[in-house]
Amino acid sequence: MDQTGALDALLHEERVFRPLPQMVIEANLNPHELEQAQEQANRDFLSYWEDAAHELDWFKKWDQVLDDSNAPHYRWFPGARCNIVYNALDRHIETANKNKLALIWEGEPGDQRKYTYYELYREVNRFANALRSLGVAKGDRVVLYMPLLPETTIAMLAVAKIGAVHSMIYGGFSAKVLRERINDAKAKLVVTADGFYRNGRVVNLKQIVDEALLGACAECVETCVVVHRANVDAEMHEPRDLWYEDLVRRERPSSPTEVMDADDPLFLLYSSGTTGKPKGIVHSHAGYMVGINRTLNWVFDLKPTDIFWCTADTGWITGHSYVIYGPLVAGTTTVMYEGHPLYPQADRLWDVVARYGVTILYTSPTLIRMLMRFGTQYPRQKDLSTLRLLGSVGEPINPEAWVWLHKHIGGAKCPIMDTWWQTETGMFMISPLPISPLKPGSVNKALPGVEADVVDREGNPVPAGKGGFLVIKKPWPAMMSGIDNDPERYENTYWKKIPGMYFAGDVARKDEDGYIWIQGRADDVLNIAGHRIGTAEVESALVAHRFVNEAAVIGIPDTIKGEVAKAFVILTDGWEAEYDTSEDLVSALKNHVRRELGPVAVLKSLEFRTTLPKTRSGKIMRRILKAEELGEDVGDTSTLEDLD
User: Fold this and answer.
1) Is 443:539 a contact under the CB 8 Å cutoff?
2) Helix, strand, or coil here: 561?
3) According to a count of CB atoms within 10 Å of the terminal CB, is the N or C end of the chain lower?
4) How many structural domains comprise the chain?
5) Residue 601 · residue 589 · CB < 8 Å
6) What CA–CA distance (Å, rounded) separates 7 from 438?
7) pTM of the model
8) Residue 249 domain-assigned?
9) Domain that holds residue 191
10) Tens digits of residue pLDDT in 162-220
11) Rounded to 5°, angle at Cα 505 from 501 and 511
12) CATH number for the domain including 175?
């Protein structure tokens, strides 16, 4: 960014949606209690997080809440002994949750499995014993290359229960990417499945694992455990390969839970940076479980009767925090769906909500925009009346998608919790609560115990309405412990760009009410003739047009203006009835953006596409579009998935 770091905010959203009185009355946290929590956090944020820690079970309490003597390498709850799996399973077996449903799973072909907390506890114990029998011990790394199956949940929990470290690799990555991550993690064991169902076809996972293990990592991997799922031909290499079912069949359903130090690593999760080289983000037991438990309970106002469905894949941080660990620690019932959201047709999500009586749906803007293309016919055909809260995660949600979700899925009665957080933060950082007034497209304000701000390059707060860098000014419990084997990269990437603050890498602005608006990544900012415009704002302006379903905007070099904007657009049906040619539509869209954002936002060119390159978590990869446009090497494309 420029010397001031300021980025003019061009989009202005005036609409405010206030919670229904009944929602405020029934909320677990009323406005007065929220105000008290915020005052406590502002006065003494360590006492606030200590109170949150008391909601969980510990083998031994902490010596202090936070050790910041080696900042930015913070240590939360040093001296404590714990294990997140004890809080996710073991403690529930002694309560009324024992026979409550923990997991409702549905496969793409329509098969179903359900587990109570007691049943899940026993299955985790069996696999924990199997892992121990295979020589896996505390501190060992286990790679999970899995689709969304109950065994994925079981494997994650079993690895953590015995004190080992899991690294989940998304089940669509290539053998090359899998090999790189196994090598980097120095994994001792791999858990996979023979295959899984995706969009009406079977993906052969075991074949990809075999190819990966032919490489340099064959020496570090001693065992490969394979789950029967799709009954595809799987070549088993003895003695390395073992069937999961054969292993657990002979194991006892009881197993001791390893006592862990507070900052012992829980999992390693690779995050793709803009530079292309993935970072091995490490999260630890104690702080992580405190952060996700408090934030899930408060943001989604969990009730004993809730059926919670987060549509994320377990290969990403949302799947770790709010598909597996968060809901189980909180003692709620969670839904998991294996397949494609459009299979066999575009009503699958709404069908799952209706059949299981889902009360909370947490999903991505990309998925919502994709389903918007099919109009309201499918949600109208399903009974979505059980829904009481909606959530958004992964990228900024444009106001039009927000309003569509609120009106057609939530029946204009379900508040939308638009959450901002990252792989590195581990937990929700900025989000409304069900009692908050909402502005479509804004992530609201920082949660209690989190101090977020928008600053310039020197760390000075910018005025309301001006853009700058999003930073977090104080440590928080669920923050990453570091980057695996690379403390220097951890410091340089997150803590030295604006000294003394966590640099999130996002550009944002605060409005006059203190609401935060995410405008895009810091490297996704256009500089057109000295004017700085967030790509997310131009994209939001495009999507506001009734014939635009999705849009991605990049900057390309220009000899006169330095940089000009190019847009890639996916259209909705029906535009031909209004425009004679595609050139007429291009002209109309350019004028539309100019009207929405002012004369500064000039689109030099616009290209229509049927798909956009996205990560498997749904984020548009603009660097791919830019590399293609400039004729450069697109680099590692293994993180791409075309949801269409």
Assistant:
1) no
2) coil
3) C
4) 2
5) no
6) 23
7) 0.87
8) yes
9) 117-261
10) 999 999 998 877 788 888 899 999 999 999 999 999 999 999 999 999 999 986 665 78
11) 80
12) 3.40.50.980
